Amino acid sequence: MAVMPNQHEFPEVSTVWLRAFLEVARSGSFTGAARTLGWTQSAVSRQISSLEGALGGGPLFDRLPRGVRLTEAGQVLVPYAETVAESLGGAVRELAALREITGGRLRFGAFATADAGLVPQALAAFRARHPRVHVTREEGFTPVLLERLTAGHLDLAVVSTTGRAPLEAYELHHLLDESLYVAVPAAHPLVGRAGPVRLGQLADEDWVSGSSRPEGTLLDAALRQGFRARVAHVVGEWTAKQGYVAAGLGVALVPALAAASVRPDVALLPVLDEGGPARAVYAAAVRGRSLTSAGEAFVDALRGAVREISRTMA
Question: pTM higher than 0.70 for the full model?
Answer without folding.
Answer: no
